[in-house]
Design goal:
This protein is α/β, with parallel strands linked by helices. 45% of the residues lie in helices and 15% in strands. The longest helix has 29 residues. It is globular, with a radius of gyration of 17 Å. Bound molecules: NADP nicotinamide-adenine-dinucleotide phosphate (NAP). Pfam families: adh_short_C2.
């Protein structure tokens, strides 16, 4: 058993975020999820929030604080892809992905930080991607946003590490969700051939890493990048 915490997962209505929320509930935490559409899993408080809008994130935190208490574990999971090759990528396609994946994470963690400092406890878990450090054609926008989360977590560790707050990155490989189902079959086959585990990952396998990072056993782990990718990124 681990200490019960108040956990927020962004983008908890589907995919990896939903699986993380389910696992956190099973671990005995009080769990809130943000969603733009739909609902989080049974047992979670669902609040509306748009990652590109700081006011909506502020309102979501205020509602969670009123119903569950201050947020102690933040899982910044909401993210998008808008894949295309550099020469075809518009500036809007670049900045919209950065705005959701990177600036959205900044908005969420900044809003959470005061409460974490006050409680002298915090676990910040950022959902990056293997392609942040591995690179991927057609994903200059996405991989840039995901690589930046490593610097984010490490700078946060240096700023707040002395106040009982840790910040870590999970770097999933190819996980079966709506996001990856949208990839062309040929690209899916190519990925599969380069994954040493010879299979795609399951959302529950990301949730397991998040569960560990939120738990008592991970108190001295900070600034780490934890790959959950079947060996694709070879530890990066
Ligand atoms: N699947 C993979 O193989 C893989 C691999 C590496 C990393 N990741 C990362 O893992 C995270 C989750 O991915 P997934 O595969 O579960 O994706 P998904 O099934 O496409 O779900 C994305 C989630 O993010 C939310 N979201 C997107 N843009 C948002 C915005 N502007 N404001 C608020 N919420 C927003 C979505 O909400 P709505 O339902 O309302 O759109 C949804 O809950 C992402 O950060 C992704 O980059 C995934």
């Amino acid at each position: 058993m681990t200490t019960s915490r108040t956990v927020l997962v962004t983008g908890g209505n589907r995919g990896i975020g939903r699986a993380i929320a389910e696992r956190m509930i099973a671990d005995g935490h009080r769990v809130a999820v943000t969603a733009r559409s739909g609902e989080g899993p049974e047992g979670a408080l669902t609040v509306r929030a748009e990652m590109t809008d700081a006011a909506s994130i502020d309102a979501a935190f205020t509602e969670i604080e009123a119903q569950l208490g201050p947020v102690e574990v933040v899982v910044a999971n909401a993210g998008i892809t808008r894949d295309t090759l550099l020469l075809r990528m518009t500036e809007e396609e670049f900045t919209s992905v950065i705005d959701t994946n990177l600036t959205g994470t900044f908005r969420v963690v900044k809003r959470a930080a005061k409460g974490l400092l006050k409680g002298r406890f915090g676990r910040v878990i950022l959902i990056s991607s293997v392609v942040g450090l591995y690179g991927s054609p057609g994903q200059i926008n996405y991989s840039s946003s995901k690589a930046a989360l490593v610097g984010f977590a490490r700078s946060l560790t240096r700023e707040l590490g002395g106040r009982g707050i840790t910040a870590n990155v999970i770097a999933p490989g190819f996980i079966e969700t709506d996001m990856t189902a949208a990839l062309p079959e040929e690209q899916q086959r190519q990925y599969l051939s380069s994954i040493p585990a010879n299979r795609f990952g399951q959302v529950a396998e990301i949730a397991g890493a998040a569960s560990f990072l939120a738990g008592d056993d991970a108190a001295y782990i900070s600034g780490a990048v934890i790959p959950v990718d079947g060996g694709l990124g070879m530890g990066h």
